[in-house]
Amino acid sequence: MSLHVIVGAGPVGTATAYRLAAAGERVRVVTRRGTGPDHPAVERVAADAADPDRLAALADGAVAVYNCANPAYHRWARDWPPLAAALLTAAGRTGAVLATVGNLYGYGPVDGPMTEATPPAAAGTKGRVRNRMWAEALAAHRAGQARVTEVRGSDYLGAGTTSLPMLLLPPVLAGRRAVLPVDFDAPHTWTYVDDVARTLVVAAAAERAWGRAWHVPSPPAVSARELATRAAALAGAPAPRLIRLPYPGLWLAGLVNPFARELRETAYQFDRPFLMDSTSATEILGVEPTPLDRALAQTVAALRDAAPATGAGSGGPRRKH
To answer: Residues in domain NAD-dependent epimerase/dehydratase (predicted)?
Structure first.
């Protein structure tokens, strides 16, 4: 039984904790409020993970530290640098592998499928923040100061996420219109949260995975319209009614809403094909993607379970890491 330290208790952190606990590992989840999965093998600790000394103490003896944190969307430029630095410092001091959950922002607009070799050409703030984090981690790895890896997914399917499907599917399942600033017919890669956790755990444990980034194995891309249609069929709901919100609507919303304002930077991800190639992780790490209909069925079930507490609504697309 080895110690694994997870920073963050969102959907990916929670799925990772449960996966490790089910495998008989000892898990320590670190959040500001001491929240996390309720499991006998999971220790929940309240701490500021941006404090390198405190985090290093919590990671002492750990085989891996998992960066599953997700600062507020409009605070990335302020909150990520000290947190990323503390995580890298803790990994360097303790010898634990630093396994980070990343995303596709760093590539910027791309024509064609993104691979791990796609140049990090993002011009926006959020993409540059993620690129800087990975560049610093990779430099430490190459200098022999830490062992690092990163896994990157597209928009998430799964319980508790705040990605595009979680804004698209609730109104669809309720038989209401879904109004979103997206091209509903552009092919898009969707990544299942459990597949993110599986890839993260494998990458942290496999020496061949260290020193590079990996795309989370994901099923073949489908449009948001097809995703909604499949979900409606699985749930026995009416055919989806999808209405595209023009970009000026998103721009105007950003005048009063910080989150909507941040979405302007990544609007390109939703108005054209957004495709991620994840064959490397399948071929080299042996991780297979969960079939889309299975991931979608589990997502629909989770949304139905949560519906009495949260209701269903629509709005602009939101993103994880």
So the answer is: 6-207
